[in-house]
Amino acid sequence: MEKLLRQSSIYDILQKAHCGERLSFEDGARLFKSNDILYIGHIANIIRERKNGNKAYYIINRHINYSNICKNRCKFCAFSRDKEDAGSYEMGMEEILENAVAAVEEGATELHIVGGLHPELPFDFYVKMISEIHERCPDVHIQAFTAVEIEHLSQIAKLSVCQTLKTLKDAGLGSLPGGGAEVFSPKIREQLCPEKLSGEGWLQVMREAHKLGLRSNATMLYGHLETPEDRVNHLVKLRALQDETGGFMSFIPLAFHPRNTELSNHSSTTAMLDLKVIAISRLMLDNFDHIKAFWIMLGIKLSQVSLSFGVDDIDGTVQEEKITHAAGAETPEALSVHEIIRLIREAGREPVERDTLYNHVTRKRVLVQTS
Ligand code: V47
Ligand code: SF4
């Protein structure tokens, strides 16, 4: 076996990773050019087990996408609308609160709240949304607003990013989700989402959030126009910020879904690319504790397989998801706790319910969910 592995063109890189040495940009780029997915996955799995043992985390949560009205038109996005467009929507405060309360009654420990960059809603609306949810559901963790939304809110509030974050934190915001990162490469951003906050801007918002004690996730949207080098550059930048702040909890690779987008002629990602991105992320991000598979985007079956390729977290029950489903995702919008547990057990892993901050959750009774 060892003799066979030695013959692999990436033996030197995987040996480095196995010995706990940090991989370089060049190492990452070479890994992406290799098709030795089983060997890459094997070492990623060893690292995953060193960090998280046999545990596979899941969370009982609910996504609330409060509005799809957005001033931007990212080419990869099928979700955003102008106010006048058919299919535009905006949830009122009561509807948001009803969703939040229902989720908590069903056992959710986290609300994941994101939306478009609404050109008219005032900052007060967002602060009130967080404070009212926090008041009615004091025990639920509110993970809300991507770094891109935070920058937008700071503009409408005419406050610094730091002040904006502080105001939201005081209202009850618990952490930031990892969306809006896309790929940091300015060249790709210029083609895909020229109006959007730059990659450096995204990292700066996260830096400020972490300094305030607000932890966050990080994502990377892949499978569109980016090169392997763009992906590695993205991972190296995240790793550098994590060295600086230690504020990231998990990294979530997001597979691009082309349907109904301006890139609808583009093919969907393949299982080979999905597993490569997952495993190489696990190997490059040596200072991230968790790699998460968002089953909605990755698909249920491949998410289960990913638990042997570097992933230790399979996200949550979700309940309702509009962003990927607008772009043609064929997964359901919700999974029951029982289904999640079964997927994890059949992969030979030990299911562990976590809260947003990765504390273990123990329940007196098993949840009975209808979805
Ligand atoms: O920012 C948009 C991406 C993100 C498409 O932090 C698309 O735990 C695929 O960030 N195909 C929002 N992706 C979702 C997100 C997320 C999801 C789950 C968990 C967490 C977390 C974060 O979705 C956007 C954008 O990068 N996106 N359009 C599309 N067509
Ligand atoms: Fe707007 Fe976000 Fe869609 Fe870009 S990805 S168009 S910012 S909702």
Count of discrete structural domains: 1
* DSSP, total strands: 10
Strand order, main sheet: write it out.
5-6-7-8
Spans of at least 5 consecutive residues whose pLDDT stays below 50 are: none
- Radius of gyration, in angstroms, nearest whole number: 20 Å
Q: Hey, roughly how much beta strand do the residues contain?
A: 5-15%
Element order: H for helix, E for strand: HHHHEEHEHEHHEHHEHEHEHHEHHE
Distance between the termini: 45 Å
Bound ligand species? ligand V47, iron/sulfur cluster
Mean pLDDT: 95
Number of helices: 16
Oligomer: single chain
CATH topology group: TIM Barrel
Description:
Helices cover about 45% and strands about 15% of the residues. With about 375 residues, it is of the alpha/beta class. It has one domain: TIM Barrel (Alpha-Beta Barrel), CATH 3.20.20. It has a 4-stranded parallel sheet. A 3-stranded parallel sheet has the order 9-1-10, with helices on one face. Strand 7 (about 250-255), helix 12 (about 270-285) and strand 8 (about 290) form a beta-alpha-beta unit. The mean pLDDT is about 95. The structure holds ligand V47 and iron/sulfur cluster (SF4). Ligand V47 binds near residues 180, 217, 221 and 261.
